[in-house]
Amino acid sequence: MIIGEITSVYGIRVKGRFYEKLPPYMVKNSNVFLGPKINSYVKTNVGLVSVVCQITGEEVSVNDKNQKILELNVIGSIEKGLFSQGLRYLPLVGAKIRLFTEDDYKSLFVSNDSMNLNIGNDLFEPTRKISIDLNSVIPTHIGIFGNTGSGKSNTLTKILQEYLNIIEDKRINSKIAQTLLFDLNNEYGDNAITNLQNKEVIKLTTQTQSKKRIPIDYSKLSEDQLGVLLNATKKTQMPIIKRALRNMKGEFDSEQKINSIRWAIINCQKNAIYTIRNELYKYIMGLEDFQFISGRSNSFIDKSNTTVDFDNKKHFDFINDIEHQSLEKIKVIEPKTWLERFEFELIYSVFQYATHGNNLEFVKPLITRLKNRIKDFNKIFNESENEITSLSQKNIVVIQLGQVNQEIRELVPSIISDLIFDSMRKNDRSKGIKQIRNIVIDEAHNILKPSKESNDIASNSVEVFEKIIKEGRKYGVFLIISSQRPSDISETITSQLHNYFIHKLVNKNDIKHIEKTVSFMDKRQIDMLSVLGPGECIISGTGFIFPMFAKIKIVDEVNEPLSRNVKLLGDEGIFSNKESKKIENKAFDPF
């Protein structure tokens, strides 16, 4: 349907005019056409090719106030039913401007070659559904950003829900496709995203032992991963961890360790002996018999209160003919699990470090952190030899971190993600990638802060995810991050995302960050971020021909995450009579 003509062309700056004022909807030959408006699409022909333009502005003609002038941007062309982005063709002055047909819209928005995710409707043409290509979005890194209440949680839920529906329809095994969601605020439990029977929810807590724990094979942890877990310093504490791991590669030699301990006693290595006596009392027996004499470097008192002094000759005799009863009573019990063995070997490595006359001041904090970590790990991890890439038989696993301490909240996502990445990297890729893992981080600004603004644990966590976002695509590992503060996330991560769903952003730093790191949006679209309404977003990235404005469909109430805004009035409001009576019947507790 012809509505006007092109009046000027200056490169990509194109202007046209309407023949007449047009209503919002028009009917021709029983076909309904949407009237042109800002951000809608029109076309003009160059031979057999249709040049696609987007209306970006409108003004009244200076010469004729009844005539409207259009400002157009060329975004591509349609040739033989296929859309191509770019400036291969430009409009001609005098060419007719036509409204888009249904087939034209299909060329722009619908891929006939793959499954699609139906996520909502066009913001400016509400009758037009928006479907996104599964192949162009799910196997990519995705960012979902927006202020609190802007609808980003609903968008994340909708994308994952549509994806899981396709997986369920095709009966895809969890070993082939699995999504792992790190839920920092415990919003995605129960029936959020999908019904509870279709997913695995692991609710972690460091207050007591978690009912469900994460299966983990500690032996698969690398030196660097253990260093992250223990927040070890590189120069003084990492060598201790490396020595402990070297010791673990061999058989547990109790006799050798006993002889080393006897040697340390004979040489009056007080700090070394006190360290293992206090920290390894579960595994080493008999050290409680000894007390070193203050001020005498070559003497100790055994359990019988006998003072033993050594000179060089007695050293020689004693080591070669150990008959002292107290020394003979020293026993070493072999640890049973990998984690217990690592605890033993690390503290024993500190003991060895001390026997060489080194100052323990810089390495003893490592023992304290290890003890604290083991307490927390036993509450959230279950030692297992199963592959970390399949945490469950379900296609989606939600790990809730709302009741763990801050350090564990920062550690768990990075360690589990790193193990998954390492496991996927070992797969045979000679015949292509046969598995996919999508790692979802909700409230990502809490754990993906730039290194210069983070503590050591958070900094190491960021390095893990920066590695995944740089190399994960090669091995079938992809990130989906959701955040209300994109400016608090490492630029290395946000700049290397493939696709973006950006809701309303008001903070200037956030908008500036998006403008700096997202190369798929122009200034006009960036300027609209602050005026978007709830549920409205700009979709942009490698999976889309050009940025789209969308109204994301609200998921069914039963599948909503626990992220609703507080409602005061109405049937479900906290000021309603029904809710007030419930509270009145309870004793007041300000805490």
UniProtKB/TrEMBL annotation:
Species of origin: Haloplasma contractile SSD-17B
Protein name: Bipolar DNA helicase protein
Keyword hit for Protein biosynthesis: no
GO molecular-function terms, A-Z: helicase activity
Top-level taxon: Bacteria
Keyword Lipid biosynthesis annotated: no
Entry keyword set: ATP-binding, Coiled coil, Helicase, Hydrolase, Nucleotide-binding
Any Pfam family matching the protein: DUF87
Domain Helicase HerA central: 127-305
InterPro entries per UniProt: HerA-like, HerA_central, P-loop_NTPase
Coiled coil: 367-394
